[in-house]
Amino acid sequence: MISIENHNVVKTLNQLLQGQYMGIHSYEEFIKNLDDSSPLRNNFITIQKDLKHHSDLLSERIQELKGTPATSEGVVGKIELYISQIFDHSNSEKEILKHAIKGENLYGIKMTEKLVRDKLDEKSLNLVDRILDKQREHVDYLKSELH
């Protein structure tokens, strides 16, 4: 049986996990839209691998807390992804970079920071901090490619 406290931590971690899935699927779209010869392509594949690794870590933590990990980005994530695919169909590398930066910054970092505030146990918070550090590295890299 899962405690009330753990239930709330699991709920928060699952929201973060859904965000990771959203990121994985966004990078899938970016990679599809990048030319095979683009130097960005391999770096985007690496970032996507990081997101998959983060989702594995979050899933493991959720299971340690006796919770059930989410298996997709959820309904809201699917809708947001669908809308972004309709409106964001630019294939220029600069536009793809801008969308990736916006996604990492807005959905990845800022929403995560807001979501976890005062809601996690120490071990879960340490995990999320490591994930956020990696996402900040992604943003720094993406911005360096943009300029």
From TrEMBL:
It holds the Pfam family DUF2383. InterPro entries: DUF2383, Ferritin-like, Ferritin-like_SF. Residues 9-114 form the DUF2383 domain. It comes from the Bacteria. This is DUF2383 domain-containing protein. It comes from Metabacillus litoralis. The lineage of its organism: Bacteria, Bacillati, Bacillota, Bacilli, Bacillales.
